[in-house]
Amino acid sequence: MKENLALALGHLFGDGGISSKGRVHYCNTEDFLVKEFVDSMSFFEIEPWIHNEENILRVNYPVMLGRELWRLFGRFSFGKDTKIITSEIDKIPLSWKVKMLRAWFNDDGTVVNYNSKYRVVAIKQKLRPLVVFIHDTLKELGINSQISEDQGKWILRITKFKDIVKFRDKVNFSENYRKAEKLDELIKGIKNPHDLTKDKILFLLRKSSKTRKELSKELDLTLETIYEHLHGRKTSSRKVEGLISQGLVGFNKKEGVNIYSLI
């Protein structure tokens, strides 16, 4: 039961918090997330006050419970915009951090699946140290992500296919949640994952050096697609690195044709 407090921590960093005096509060429009939070707090055997306010369920616990959470995890929340990653939270086991992230992403995470050019899993926070903690925890799980400033807030994005799949397999959203279903749809919708195609190119070049035309024929991809994987491409918003700029592939010109090989 105590490990389930990790879910409570995630929700408190998401749509909840603790007041300066210690009152614990949480709100959400999703009934099952409110139940998840309340169940995770059952360790303390204290019944919450729950009331419905314009289709938003609001949960409150007494001051004594907030102070008990401070005793266990440090003063990680003590008023508006005061949330911090305490040394106590930083030291919790990785399995606890995974549960914490799952609850946190349930509240604040998004799955963006607009088109083939922009598919990401993201989470936005006001305070940079919070997204740094998420980034570092994902890194421990072998999941790469990027942090950038966005309209006065900080956003963490998981953009690469392999990392999105790892996120689903190791963290994910709660089962049957619409965000989890949207994540599955995103992954299924990627027919030729960029990262996997790069891996296939590296595998072929490991066998022998090849021209772009030879790679195109073996992988059944256009010459333009092979070029982008090797040399990279630039979109209106960012630059996508290729295998050459990553230092994995080099090329020599022979009779006017590029011959690619592993470095």
Keywords for this structure?
263 residues, alpha+beta, Endonuclease I-creI, Arc Repressor Mutant, subunit A, 3 domains, four-stranded antiparallel β-sheet, 13 strands, 24% strand, elongated
Please, could you describe this protein's structure?
By secondary structure, the protein is an alpha+beta fold. It folds into three domains: 2-86, Endonuclease I-creI; 108-189, Endonuclease I-creI (Roll), CATH 3.10.28; 194-262, Orthogonal Bundle (Arc Repressor Mutant, subunit A), CATH 1.10.10.10. 44% of the residues lie in helices and 24% in strands. The protein contains eleven helices and 13 strands. It has helices at 5-13, 31-40, 63-73, 87-90, 94-108, 128-140, 161-170, 178-189, 194-207, 212-219, 223-231, and strands at residues 16-18, 24-28, 49-53, 56-61, 109-115, 118-125, 146-150, 153-158, 210-211, 233-234, 239-240, 249-254, 257-262. The chain has a four-stranded antiparallel beta sheet. A four-stranded antiparallel beta sheet has the order 5-6-8-7. A three-stranded antiparallel beta sheet has the order 9-13-12. The longest helix has 15 residues, at 94-108. It is elongated, with a radius of gyration of 23 Å. The termini are far apart. The mean pLDDT is 92.
Kindly give the count of domains. Answer: 3
Element-by-element helix/strand order? HEEHEEHHHEEHEEHHHEHHEEEE
CATH topology value of the largest domain:
Endonuclease I-creI
CATH superfamily of the largest domain: Homing endonucleases
Number of helices: 11
- The number of strands is 13
Q: What's the N-to-C terminus distance?
A: 52 Å
The CATH architecture term of the largest domain is Roll
CA-based shape: elongated
In which range does the helix fraction lie? 40-55%
Q: Quick check: average pLDDT?
A: 92
Largest sheet: 4 strands, antiparallel
Give the percentage of residues in beta strands.
15-25%
Q: Pick out the low-confidence regions.
A: none
